Amino acid sequence: MADRPDGGGKARSQVHNPTLSRISGIATPGWCLHHPGSPRWGDGDGRARDRTLSCVIQVEELRKTYGRVDALAGVTFAVGTGEFVAVMGPSGSGKSTLLQCAAGLERPTSGRVRLAGVEVGELDETGLAALRRERIGFVFQAYNLLPALDVADNITLPLRLAGRPFERRQAAEAAARVGMADRLTHRPAELSGGQQQRVALARALITTPEVIFADEPTGALDTRSARQVLELLRDLVDRSGQTVVMVTHDPVAASYAHRIVFLADGRLAGQIDAPSPELVAERMTKLGDW
Ligand SMILES: Nc1ncnc2c1ncn2[C@@H]1O[C@H](COP(=O)(O)OP(=O)(O)OP(=O)(O)O)[C@@H](O)[C@H]1O
Ligand SMILES: [Mg+2]
């Protein structure tokens, strides 16, 4: 486990997923539900604040089966608007599957997902694509950058797909936020894994999405870049009220979140509020092999 100021991690196995897709459709205005979780968290400047929030994500009895594998075996939880939640669990415990189902990238075998006020199961593919495009940012475990596009074009791709006007300056600003300002004209193949990961994050943030799902966003980063990314994610929550759900294997990375949800064998296996790296590491050892 790294010290928090040196937060970071190792390169991890990659999972493929489809990237950004079709245009059009609509997103409906929101459900407003109260978070059933614990009552308070720190708000970044030391004060506690009330966690009586509307929920931006609710998953209910979520199951996802691949052949004989129960990737998710009945997961129910909610994430409040403006909350930063880390998802942890052993390899194969269903973390990526949970993120992809919660983000509307995968259809669950059964169960419900409400995301940004929308009952995801009721959307057709066009509606789903619109929801993802307009309200959601997703950082894939495998980055999923388009190899033929340079960094600037990869970052602004969601804006282009959405038909939103933009200037190249926006790509430069987004790249600068993740320390990639000097690589705008490079292709993904000319970048290291960690650099690609940061470009993928910049791409996910370019539309200012309400909810950011990030699957091991620091997995390939050195400790300094990892800290930069984690501070950026925390800042989005603290300053902009955006919601972040992040998968990580690193207790230090997880300690940037308000709350950690643990998965084991496709099921929830507990949670920690206001996590410290030490507490997380202790809980991880109790969950068995990682
Ligand atoms: N497309 C797929 N087809 C078949 N099985 C799959 C597929 N995607 C995931 N699985 C299986 O579902 C289970 C959960 O996979 P998932 O990728 O969600 O795990 P994870 O917790 O993200 O693991 P890691 O930490 O290694 O990324 C695993 O047993 C995996 O083999
Ligand atoms: Mg995964």
Automatic annotation (TrEMBL):
SMART domains in the cross-refs: AAA
Protein's UniProt keywords contain Transferase: no
Keywords of this entry: ATP-binding, Nucleotide-binding, Transport
Keyword Transport attached: yes
Gene Ontology cellular-component annotations: membrane protein complex; plasma membrane
GO molecular function: ATP binding; ATP hydrolysis activity; transmembrane transporter activity
Record PANTHER family: ABC TRANSPORTER RELATED, IMPORT ATP-BINDING PROTEIN
UniProt-recorded name of the protein: ABC transporter ATP-binding protein
Source organism: Nonomuraea montanisoli
Lineage of the species this protein comes from: Bacteria, Bacillati, Actinomycetota, Actinomycetes, Streptosporangiales
